[in-house]
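Design review, sub-item: ligand-bound model
Attendees: FS, YL, KQ
YL presented the inputs for the glutathione complex:
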Amino acid sequence: MKLFITPTSVYARKVRIVVREKGLADRIEEIVTLPVDAAPELLAVNPLSQIPALIDDDGQAWTDSSVIAAWLDGRGGGVPFLPEYGSDAYWRVRRMETAAMGMIEMMAKIVYENRRPEGERSPFWLRRWEDNLVRAFRMADAFDPDPGIFDMGTMNLAIAGTFCDFRLGHVDWRAVAPRIAAVQAELEKRQSFIDTYPR
Ligand SMILES: N[C@@H](CCC(=O)N[C@@H](CS)C(=O)NCC(=O)O)C(=O)O
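KQ shared the predicted structure:
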């Protein structure tokens, strides 16, 4: 299988952690591709020119980090990232994952906006997205995530926190989300997290 990534992408990191935790690393080749380059190999898998994107052993294309991560969870051994489909535990984990992905989306918007030339940036949207982000961290903390539990919920909250440190160091998310901070501190010790730390 082939997985298109960049080493700094939090979306790709999510999938790369699952790959490692499921013991699939030797079956998946990581291909570093900058989405803005719109390389034909990436476009053939994802016409949106976004990573992560995966080609499976049958040549099927998979896009969207949450779908790829859930699909890979059903393969390989190791930790089950998702509880039994439809159970209360399953939906709790998916809600945590969705909260984290919403935070990641806000951060991505801020990062892209900040890449515009200074005079073209919108202070209104930057303020709004940062306010949304801080509110979302506070609300996600109310899930009371447990640093002793490793699943799709806690994993995504942890990588959202690390991505905020990496790209928006001025946002003091730990002040509003101390439980997520404890989860992040714990999970960043795992080898799969160390191997995929954004740099
Ligand atoms: N919903 C997608 C979003 C993927 C995404 O936005 N990836 C970024 C990686 S940093 C990207 O490729 N951005 C380039 C672009 O959107 O043009 C997912 O979860 O995989």
